[in-house]
Structures are given as C-alpha cells and as structure tokens.
Amino acid sequence: MTLIDDAPAVLEVAGLSVHAHRRDSPISITDDIDIRVAAGEAVAIVGESGSGKSITARALMHLLPKELTTEGELNLHGRSISGISEAAMRKLRGTEIALVMQDPFTMLNPLETCGAQLTAVLRDENGKTLSRAERRSEAVRRLAEVGITDPAVAQRYPFELSGGMRQRVGIAAAIAGKPRILIADEPTTALDVTTQSEILELLHQLRVTHGIALVLITHDLRVAFSVADRVYVMYAGEIVETARSAMLDEAPAHPYTANLLLAEPPLEHRVEKLAEIPGSVPAPGERPTGCRFAPRCTWATQECTTAPVALTEVDGDSSHVARCVRIDEIRASLSDRVPVIAGPRDESQDARAQSPVITTRDAARTFGEKVAVVGATIEVRPGESVGIVGESGSGKTTLARMLVGLTRPSSGSVRVGGIELAGSPSRAEWETVRNTVQMVFQDPYSTLNPSRSIGSTLRDALRMVSTSDLDNRVGELLERVGLPTHYARRMPVQLSGGERQRVSIARGLAREPDVLVCDEVVSALDVSVQARVLNLLRDLQRDTGLGFVFITHDLAVVRQMTDRVYVMNRGVVVEHGNTDDVLDSPTDAYTQRLLASIPR
Amino acid sequence: MTAPATVAIPLRTEKKRRLPPITISIAFAVLAIALVMVFFPQIAPYDPNFIDATAILQGPSPAHLLGTDQLGRDVFSRVIAGAGTAVLAPLLLATGTIVVAVLLGLAAGYARGWVDGVLGRVIDVLYAIPALLVAIVVVGVTGGGFTMALGILLIFGLPSPFRLFRAAGMERVNLPYMEAARAIGLSHLRIIFTQLLPTLRPLLVSLLFLQFTYGLIEVSSLSFLGLGVPPGSADWGRMMFENRATLSSNVWATAAPGLALVLLAVSTNVIGDWMYNSHEMKEKHR
C-alpha cells in the first residue's frame, strides 16, 4: 500500500493537547499532537505506557472523562469536530469513526448474545427497529464480514467464545455503521500470537474490502510495521518521530525510536546484550523542558535541554519528521549501533553430563473436568536455562507451578532436588525443595504485598536461611538485582513495574536456589524495561551459575534466554530440543505455526 | 513521595461521595470532647450521684446547666459521668468482636475445607438469632449483669465481621504475593499474621469505628431496658429510661443523654468512613 500524500485526509488532527486538572494547576498529558490519516490509509501510533497514546485515541473519539480537557483542531473529512456537542458527536461515532477496544473480555455485554449486540442500533429507512428475522440475517452477514462463518455464533453469549472470536465480534460491532475510520486501541495485546496474526490480517482485509482507514494504537513496533503504512512514535505525551514504516524500521532518526528498536529482543538470532534505555518515562507534570527524552538519551548535550524541540524534516523527506535537535550530527552513530550477535552456544558445558535438578515424568494435572497438563516430561540440569513456551491454555503455567510445589500433580512424577513432590514430602524435604527451586511471578503489580515495605518482604525470605545480619543481606540482595539499598524502606506502590519485578527476582534469590522458575516475568513490562530485566537474568546466570525455567509465550525471549526449549500445546509437550534448533528448523506443525505468526 | 513510578491518569474516573471537611472536623471534635469526659470526669460541676432534695426536676439554670432530675441530681454532671461506660463498654465490645472475628474469619477463609464448613454453619446459626433479644432474655432471667450482657453481644456480633474477614482471606489467599510467601517457605501462621493481616489494616480501622457505633447503640438499648448497668448508674441509656416519666418537667434530663448518644454514634461512624476512604485513596494513588 502506498500513501498518496495529497489524497484527501479523512482525519486531520492539529495541535491536539489534553490536560488534566489536579488541584490548582493543569498538567498536560499530551501536547501538540498532529496526525493526518488519508482515506484508506493505515497509520499506527506507537509508544510505551505513559506516552499518551490511548488518551490520544480517546480524544479523537471525544471519549475522554470530563476531568480532562482538550485543545486543538480535529477535522473529519475537512469538517471540524472540535467543539461539537455530545449529541452531534454521537451521530458520528460508529458511522464516521469507530473504536475497537483492547480487552475483548470486557468490551462485550456478558448478558446479551453477540447477535443482539451487533444489531442493537440498526433501524430501517423509516427509523423502525428491524424484525427478528431481519436482525438475525443481518447479524450472520456481519459475522461473516469478520471471518466468522458459523451462523450459530450470533446466538452465543460472549463468554462462550474465545478471546480472538470476541475481538472479531467487537470489530464487527465497530464497523456495523460503516465508519470510514477505525481506531483500534491495542486490539491484539490480550491475544495469543497466532490469534493476533489473524486479527491483524482481518484489519488489513477490512481496509481492502471496505476502504476503512485504520488508526492502530500499539506498544509493539513489530505489529505497527506489519500493519501500518506510516507510524507515529509517541514519547512522554508528544510525537517524537513520524515516517513510513519501512523507513522507520531501517533508518530511525530519533534516538528513542532507535533505542526502542534495539531493545526489542530479536527472534532470528541471539545477541550478546539487549540494548537498554536507562531511567523511565517521565510522568505528566514531571517532564523536562527541553527534549523530553534527553535525560535518558546517550547523545544528549547541553543544547537538548534548553528549549522545547520542534519536529524537523529528516533528509529533506517531508514524510519523515523527528523531534531531535541533533538529527544530522548523530545520524551516523545511530545507524552504527547494531547489536552484537552472540556466537554459538558453549556446547562444551558439562551441564549435560550432570544429573538433572528437576525431572518430571508424565506429570499431569486436572482441575475437575478440565485437563491443564496432560502429561509432561521435562528435565532441568544445573546452570541450564530451559524455556517452556506456549499460548494461553497450553498448561505451561500449571507445569511451572508444579515445579515449585504450588500445584501438586494429579498423576505422574515431579522430582525436585531428589524429592518426589507427587508424594507427601516431610517438612525437611520441603525445605530442600524450597532451597532448590524458587519462583518469580508474572504480574509486577500483585507480586509484592502492598502493605509491606520492600525490606520486610525480602527479610521474610532471608529469614528462612538464617536470621543473622538481615539488614545487610537485604542490601546485598537489592544490589544484586541492580537496585539501590535504600529501596528497602520503600513501599511497592513507590516502585515502577520493572523495579518491582527486580525485587521479585531478589526475593526468589534469597534462598540461593539452584533454579529460578520465571513465569512470564517480562510480559507486563515495556520493551525498554523488559530488556533491562532480561539482561539482569542473563548476568545472574553467567555469574552465579543459576539455572532458569523460563515460562513465556514470546519466542524472541526464548531465543535470547534459553539453551533448551519445550513447546507446549493443549497440555502436551509437542516439541523439545536445543533452542536454536527448534526455532530455526521446527519439526512440529504447531511450532511452525507459532513461528509463522510472529509479525516481522 | 519520591516515586519514579508513572502517575496513572485515570481513563475512567469514578465519582466518590466524599464528606465535606467541616463534617469530619466536627466528628473529631465530638470524639475529643467524649474522650475528655471519659478521662477527666472531675470537670463536672457536681458529684453525679449527689442527691439534692431541695432542687428536684428543675429546668436549665446557671447553677444547673441542664437542670436536675427527679432526685435532684445535676443532669450535666451525669452526662459527663456517663461518657465512661458510653465509650469504654462499646470500645471493649468492638475490640473483642473484631479480634475474635479476625481469628475465626481468616482461619476459615485461608484454610477453607472443613474448618470453613464448621465455622460457617455456627455463624449462620448466630446470624439467625437477634442479639438484643437473647441478651434481654438471658440477662433478664439470670440477672447476670453487665459483663454477661457484653459477652452475649460480643458472640452475637460476630457474624458480619466474620464474613467480612473470611471473604477478605479468600480473596487474598491466591494472590501472587501470598503464593510467593508460600513458595518461599513461610508457615501458614506466619503468612496469616505477617502477610495477610497487614493488608487488612484499613478494614480493621474502619470496622473498629463501625462496630463501636453498633456497640454503643446495643449497650445503651440494654441500659434503657433496665438491663446491664445497675439501677441509679450515670449511664446515658439508663438516664433516658429513668427520666422518661418526667419528660414534661425537665426535658433535658432525657434529651441530653439521648443527644450525646446520637452525636457520638454519628461522629464515630463518620470518622470510620473517612479513615477507610482516605486509606483507599492512598492505595489507589500509584
């Protein structure tokens, strides 16, 4: 798809700013956003959390909460919709501009059938509601539009459908009024990678068949590149760079974009070290005056911090603009920064020879009728990093929980440090298990007790080893995960997601286990933060010989972090082997499908 | 806070019913006055039990701010003296109820299984029986006095807080930080006391005030019915009971303790509400 620069814009945003009003002074959340979408074009707005991308999407729909005020020009087909009434805006929503939400699990009404939700607003030419038969056929026709060919779905309730199906129904509802612009806010973030690729393909199809222009909001540059013609990169409430997808991928001009691309773990090969971005995104109200990225930018100089930076053209290309004063000076060094590809893994490691720390044999777990793990046989040797990869419902988390004794196997064997967990281990045997394997949990926001300080959480864990010198050992533990020792006095709410996850890792390390089970530890983190946590884990493995079991859905993370991998599907290990072998030449059909679904 | 964490800008803001600051100030002032009366009863101008036969059933005057009752005792002094039982008895009751409810409720919510089953059914039975009625019958028949009345109110006051803590325990027991505590090897008792209990702090504080309000009304009701405190005691409920016959001669002898009761009950309720809300806001404000 090519962009015709002088094609009429269906959506034009100029100088859009959103403010929050806290007590006396307004705090700006987004500043001076300019976006132009041509008819049938797909653009993406990419940014990490706190960039203001979702706020922007809602501002376009006039769907912001009353506490937030907007400024700037919004034009739909050349017609200003900036100050129009709610009643007038309501007429435009759905028919001119529509929104697909992020979470397919909450966006549909659980008490109404999908068909009813698709046809609720329909009226015939005379403004009358349609007959039952008409509504039914209309619902079926619309479901077919989004690739659901089974007419029975119209009669089903949302909870009877998978996440991907629900997202399709959500899209069908959004395009019901034949809008010319579809805004999709992280439409695939909650979905598995294979489902994601189907939904992205569907969005692409709709552009072709319906001529709908697409505004995709996402945190994932790869997803943006695979769908959008042009990409807007947002950082701390402003657009820092805009270019055609291919251009942005190959030659990013803004250090933030460049860093973001580098921080993304590559799928194809293992790198020596993932690029990190130091610091974190400044909160609204705490943003620096000059370039907002300057405090985290390795190229920043005096001139970056003095005055706000304007968007300037890159290389005289009017479609490529970036908000950086040093564009021309740093161009060369930006493109120089390529990650060092790691050499072949050290096969001489004697890990293979050593006897495994963890072995499971046909370990199965059922919850009532539901079979979570059908029977998994895996081995983890000392100092080895093993990946367990699969989509939601594959049973990978249940398997991980069996390894640390949080879930007991229904049948089969799970041996950790020589102790059989399927039996009933004694108190002393449990101690051995706890000293052998520890776990780090997925969600950084619930992994730490909100009412206890970081220090007391870590002391709880350290006390299990010995009660002497606790404060110093807390300090050492924090230093090992790269946090300052005074963090011991902080409460979890004062920490960012990445910091919490590092505390969680520190807690796992407190008992000096041989193996750390990491359950999706980075999936809730932004790319730049994720890189830092992954680097930390790799350093720990190299320096202390710690072994890992990495539970993840992300094959790129598997590539970076693991020596061997088990691929799980529907509670069964379908393929296993050395990570490079499995990812480079998968033999199982499911693994192949998984790899093919990844946007690149 | 020096939090580097991002300030969450709410996409959906919920309107919260918030009490005006003036209401909260008044509530605290009332509580402060009540506490002064509890700890410094000597501020009363008269001995609350001093019978002055020459000044029976007088209306308010500079000598007797709220007049006198049928035995010529100073109503104002008796209201001050009554603050003692009015504050301490419900406080004792509330604390006792909460301590027992926390222990049983968390045990049931954390352990589930048969523990939950047995405790739950016992509590269901208690729930079905009105506490005040049992207290009236038992204390009235046995003449058991104040301690027995408090004991009965405590046991029958358990169901609501028990269910609250059971639910809280059940809700939290599978949260990742609780699982992490189990994975690290902490014992169940340690987990309950060091992990679970601190997260209940806002609930405990607000519940203390709420239970206090309930207790105040229940204890006073008993006194009003002539049970509990011995006859002639300077107790607000008792005063209302004893003076209701002479309502037309000195209305203050009945109204003043009643008013004191209402003010204290409303104030503690407001304070409890405010404390819970402010804590909740702090939790949410990441």
Describe the structure.
The complex is a heterodimer of chains A (600) and B (286). By secondary structure, chain A is an alpha/beta fold. Chain A folds into 3 domains: 9-96 and 179-336, P-loop containing nucleotide triphosphate hydrolases (Rossmann fold, 3-Layer(aba) Sandwich); 109-172, no CATH class; 350-596, P-loop containing nucleotide triphosphate hydrolases (Rossmann fold, 3-Layer(aba) Sandwich), CATH 3.40.50. Helix content of chain A is 31%, strand content 24%. An 8-stranded mixed beta sheet of chain A has the order 6-7-8-3-9-10-12-11, sandwiched between helices. In chain A, strands 19-20-21-16-22-23 form a 6-stranded mixed beta sheet, sandwiched between helices. In chain A, strands 13, 14, 15, 17 and 18 form a 5-stranded antiparallel beta sheet that branches. In chain A, a hairpin with a 2-residue loop joins strand 1 (9-22) and strand 2. In chain A, helix 15 (497-509) packs parallel to helix 16 (527-544). Chain B has a single domain (23-36, 65-280), classed as MetI-like (MetI-like fold). With 286 residues, chain B is mainly alpha-helical. The termini of chain B are close together. The relative contact order of chain B is 0.15. Chain B has 11 helices and no strands.
Defining key terms:
heterodimer, A: 600 residues, alpha/beta, Rossmann fold, 3 domains, eight-stranded mixed β-sheet, 19 helices, 23 strands, B: 286 residues, MetI-like fold, 69% helix, disordered N terminus
Give the number of domains of chain B: 1
Which range best describes the helical content of chain B: under 10%, 10-25%, 25-40%, 40-55%, 55-70% or over 70%?
Answer: 55-70%
What's the β-strand tally of chain B?
0
SS-based class of chain B:
mainly alpha
Largest sheet of chain B: none
